[in-house]
Structure formats: C-alpha cells, structure tokens
TrEMBL record:
Keyword presence, Oxidoreductase: yes
Listed name of the protein: Pyridoxamine 5'-phosphate oxidase N-terminal domain-containing protein
NCBIfam families: Rv1155_F420
GO MF terms, alphabetically ordered: coenzyme F420 binding; oxidoreductase activity, acting on the CH-CH group of donors
Keyword annotations of the record: Oxidoreductase
Native organism: Dietzia timorensis
Any one Gene Ontology cellular component term annotated for this protein: cytosol
Signal peptide: none
Pfam assignment, any one: PNPOx_N
C-alpha cells in the first residue's frame, strides 16, 4: 500500500495540472456514488478539497463521514487518493477551497450554498512511476 509520502514530484505535478477527476463516496445504503468533479490536492496537508453545493449527494455523503476516493486519469497516468471524508461549512474554509480551485481551474461561480468535501488522504494508488516504484515508461 502506498501513502501520500510516496507521491513523486511528477505525481504532484500531475495533481496540479488541469484535469477533472471522479469522487467516489458512499450513500446511506452503502452503495457507491461516483461524480465527475474538479478538485485540489494540498501535499502539505495531504488533503483533497472538492467544492460543491450543500444540497448535493456528495455533500450528504461527506456529512456522514466515512471514507471517499478521488481519482484522476490522463492516458496511462492515473492516481487514486483515498481517506477519511468530512464536510466543511465555515466561510473561511469555503473561501480557501474556492481560491485553490480558482488557481487550478478558474474562478468558481458565486454559490451561497457552497460547502467543501475534504478527504484526508492516507492511501494512494496509481501508475507505478508516480509512486516511485518504477522508472517512467516511454510515451
């Protein structure tokens, strides 16, 4: 099993490039809910942030806690970031997540109901060279 400390410089660069991902969280009945999302990864805090509306299924799932996964794929490169999930609702936490989102993607549209799904990453899966387990493959 890999952890965030195994992420190589190339992996961190990949997580900073403009790509969309998927968020997988669990509904109340335990079934997976998968949604296409924009997200940010903070390598210092080892956390993923996803901004969303407080009424969305993503928010409801995060409000209950548990675990969630964000995945990003681009051709042969992919990473999956997993950990404990929670919902952040304070104005300062939302503003910070919006700022990080704007740096990676674009300024988000105004949304007074915005909240943040936060994942504290403790498990990482992905392309071997992004985790320092093999040299980068050509092409």
């Amino acid at each position: 099993m890999s952890t965030p400390s195994d992420l190589t410089a190339e992996a961190l660069e990949f997580l900073a490039e403009r790509h969309l991902g998927t968020l997988t969280s669990l509904r109340r009945d335990g079934s997976p809910h998968v949604a296409a999302i924009g997200f940010t990864y903070d390598p210092v805090e080892r956390c993923v942030r996803v901004i969303t509306s407080g009424a969305n299924q993503k928010a409801a799932n995060a409000r209950r806690g548990g675990r969630a996964v964000v995945a990003q794929v681009d051709g042969r490169r992919w990473l999956s970031l997993e950990g404990a999930v929670r919902l952040l609702t304070s104005e300062s936490e939302v503003r910070r997540a919006e700022q990080l989102y704007a740096e990676r993607y674009r300024k988000p549209r105004p949304n007074p109901a915005r909240v943040v799904v936060e994942i504290r990453v403790d498990r990482v899966l992905g392309t071997a060279y992004l985790l320092g387990r093999s040299p980068r493959l050509p092409g």
